[in-house]
Amino acid sequence: MPKAWIQQRKKDYYYKKAKEEKYRSRAAYKLLQAIEKYHFMKSGDVVVDLGAAPGGWIQAARKIVGSKGFILGVDLKPIEPFSQTNVRPTIGDLTEPATLRQILSTLPRKADAVTSDASPNISGIWEVDHARQIDLAEQSLNIALETLRSSGSFFVKVFEGDMLNDFIAKIREHFQVVRIIKPKASRAKSSELFILGMRLKKALD
Ligand SMILES: C[S@@+](CC[C@H](N)C(=O)[O-])C[C@H]1O[C@@H](n2cnc3c(N)ncnc32)[C@H](O)[C@@H]1O
Burial, 201: exposed, middle or buried (Cβ in 10 Å; 0-12, 13-18, 19+)? Predict the structure, then answer.
């Protein structure tokens, strides 16, 4: 990691807060802020978190769903285990059909919310990174459509770019309410945005 980047990170408000509050990533606050505003996750919910390593969103979701909920986290990379028994970190590639089968067989029932913070390795070529990100977001949407209950919610990271409007249109086809969100914890200079689809129109059987 470049030295300047490490220095910059140490000064960052949410980085320090995450260290103090023992979140595994500053990204946890992006999810918490979105939930605080739109209330799309609650106590007792079943949640699937895609692109979950190192586990900040899992911790944030666990805080909301509590001991009666269930969280399945999926990432290419291993996620350090959690002490709570209702949190299941697993290794999986969200673009592989086997991962969907694994998710469906692990969930205690259909999910109330699917979240995805999955990001490709950044190449630095803007169009390439945008296209890869949208691809991961679309694959996450497919998993959401297969695993959510009717009226469930989908919260996904995207990068701004030409393909974004078509992706948002796809979300609108399936969800009654759609919001585009830039949480405070998301750096202003980052092109990341989050799309929230609420009230899935019809769950698959
Ligand atoms: C920004 S990080 C997620 C941070 C996480 N939300 C947190 O709060 O700790 C993005 C993650 O997406 C994962 N990822 C990228 N492509 C993936 C894929 N095809 N399947 C599963 N995970 C993937 C990466 O391995 C990386 O850990």
Answer: exposed
Residue 72 contacts residue 165 (beta carbons within 8 Å):
no
User: What is the DSSP code (8-state) at residue 68?
Assistant: G
Q: Is residue 16 annotated as a catalytic residue, yes or no? A: no
pLDDT in tens, 16-53: 999 999 999 999 999 999 999 999 999 999 999 999 99
Give a yes or no: residue 8 inside a domain.
no
Q: Is residue 2 part of a domain?
A: no
Q: List the structure tokens of 122.
A: 């950044």
Q: Are 106 and 91 in contact (CB under 8 A)?
A: no
Q: What range does the domain containing 178 cover?
A: 26-200
Query: Per the domain annotation, does 155 fall within a domain?
Result: yes
CATH number of the structural domain spanning residue 69? 3.40.50.150
**How many domains, the chain?**
1
pLDDT exceeds cutoff 80 at 2: no
24 Cα–ligand 1 center, Å: 13
pLDDT at 7 over 70: no
Instruction: Assess if residue 205 is contained within a domain.
Output: no
Give the pTM: 0.95
Separation of CA 199 and ligand 1 centre (Å): 25
17: buried, middle or exposed (CB in 10 Å: 19+, 13-18, 0-12)? Answer: middle
